[in-house]
Design brief:
Number of domains: 2
Order of helices and strands: HHHHEHHEHHEHHEHEHHHEE
CATH architecture of the largest domain: 3-Layer(aba) Sandwich
Largest sheet: 5 strands, parallel
Mean pLDDT: 82
Low-confidence stretches: 1-40, 272-277
Structural class: alpha/beta
Helix content: 40-55%
Distance between the termini: 69 Å
Number of strands: 7
Shape: globular
Radius of gyration: 23 Å
C-alpha cells in the first residue's frame, strides 16, 4: 500500500503552499487598491466619528475628575433598558457598557475604571427610577448614564408624566453627588410608527437643559452615521429595526468615551504608588 501523505495530496490537487498563499493575498490586496476595484471602507472607529465636529458631546464632569484625582478610581453606572443590556449584540462584551469600559481603561491607563451595566430590557423610565437607589446610588458611581424613554414612547405614557419622572431621577442622582448624562432617543429607520416620537425627544432635551445636565446626542449621531453612507443598514440596526448591533454599539461607546475623557480632562492621580498624569 502506497502512503499518500498530506503534502502529496496538496501538490496533486494544486493547493498552494504557504508562500503561494501569501503571494495570493498580496495580489488580492493590490487588485483591491487598483483603480478598477471598489475602495475598502475606512476602519470602523474612524467611521464612528463621522461628523464628530458637528455633533459635539463634551460634558462637564468635575465629580468624575475629583474621584480620579483623589482615589484613582472611576465608576460609571449605565442605567437603561434593552439598549443598555445589549439586545442585538452578538456577545455580552459587545454591549455599549462593556466597550465603554474597555475604551476608558485604555485611555486612562493609570486609573481603575468600572462601568456597571444595569440595563433591564422592556423597562420604562418609572421602572428605572424605582431602582435608582439600589442599582445606582448604592454603587457610589461618579457618573450615571441614563438611557430611557424608548419604552415610554412605545406605551405613550404621557409627556408630562415622563418629565416628572426624569426630574425626580436627576434629583436623586444629584442629591447623592452623582453626575448624570441623559441619553437621547435613538434614530430609527421607521420611527414614524410612533406618532409622538419627536414630542418625547423634546421632553428629554428640555429636562437636560432645565436641569443643566449633559445630553448624549444619540439621535443626531445615528442619523449622521446612516446619512454618511459609510455603513450598511445591517451594520447599525438589527432586523427588528429598533436595536443596535455590534458596530452600532461600538460607535455609541466610542463617542461616549470621547466625550467623557474630554469632559474629565488631564488628571493627576494622587493615590499611593500612582503619580503620573493620565490623559
Amino acid at each position: 500500500m502506497v502512503r499518500f501523505d498530506h503534502e502529496t495530496r496538496r501538490k496533486r490537487r494544486g493547493y498552494p503552499g504557504p508562500w503561494r498563499a501569501v503571494a495570493a493575498a498580496v495580489l488580492l490586496l493590490a487588485l483591491n487598491s487598483g483603480s478598477g476595484a471598489a475602495p475598502l471602507p475606512p476602519p470602523l472607529d474612524a467611521r464612528c466619528r463621522t461628523e464628530a465636529a458637528k455633533i459635539a458631546f463634551q460634558p462637564s464632569l468635575p465629580a468624575a475628575r475629583r474621584a480620579l484625582q483623589e482615589t484613582g478610581r472611576l465608576t460609571i453606572v449605565a442605567l437603561g433598558s434593552s439598549a443598555t443590556a445589549g439586545s442585538g449584540a452578538s456577545a455580552d462584551d459587545r454591549s455599549y457598557p462593556s466597550v465603554l469600559q474597555a475604551e476608558l481603561r485604555r485611555r486612562l491607563p493609570g486609573a481603575e475604571v468600572r462601568v456597571v451595566n444595569k440595563g433591564v430590557g422592556g423597562q420604562s423610565a418609572y421602572d428605572m427610577l424605582s431602582r435608582m437607589q439600589a442599582d445606582v446610588i448604592d454603587e457610589k458611581p461618579a457618573i450615571v448614564i441614563w438611557q430611557a424613554v424608548i419604552n415610554d414612547v412605545i406605551r405613550d405614557v404621557g409627556e408630562d408624566k415622563l418629565g416628572k419622572i426624569l426630574r425626580k431621577g436627576v434629583g436623586k442622582a444629584r442629591a447623592a453627588g452623582i453626575e448624570m448624562i441623559l441619553m437621547d432617543l435613538p434614530w430609527l429607520p421607521r420611527e414614524g410608527r410612533y406618532p409622538h416620537y419627536d414630542d418625547y425627544r423634546k421632553v428629554l432635551t428640555k429636562t437636560a437643559q432645565d436641569q443643566a445636565i449633559a445630553l448624549f446626542p444619540r439621535y443626531a449621531m445615528m442619523k449622521g452615521w446612516s446619512n454618511s453612507r459609510q455603513f450598511t443598514p445591517e451594520e447599525l440596526v438589527g432586523m427588528d429595526g429598533l436595536h443596535l448591533v455590534d458596530a452600532g454599539y461600538r460607535c455609541l461607546a466610542l463617542r461616549l468615551a470621547d466625550g467623557i475623557v474630554a469632559g474629565i480632562g488631564p488628571v493627576r492621580i494622587e493615590t499611593a504608588g500612582k503619580g503620573k498624569p493620565t490623559n
